[in-house]
Amino acid sequence: MPSARGTVKSSNGVRFTCTFDIDDMMFIFSGSFTTTVPHFSSNNVTVTYDGEHQLSSVRVFDGHIGARNFKLELANGPVIEGVLDIPIPGMSVMGNGVWSGN
Predict the structure, then answer these.
(1) How many CA atoms lie within 13 A of 36 on its CB side?
(2) Does the global pTM surpass 0.90?
(3) Nearest Cα residue to 30 out of 6, 51, 50, 53
């Protein structure tokens, strides 16, 4: 399975943005949680996927965040995971996001 390195940053307790460089193109996953999550970020994120066709459209996900890592499993297969820059309390999460690229 292909994978790519990237970053993630939350913005307001509900929204977050993941950014990945794949074959010299930026792929961005802009997501929202169904519940409030403490501020988090990571410069050590990996997305694993079967093909770039999976990195498009609106996608639902579930997973966990905290204490030191996070993992989001998208319904169509890709997994976004990494080590948090600063630990936060652990919790299960769910939500949705949209992929964009340029």
Answers:
(1) 3
(2) yes
(3) 6
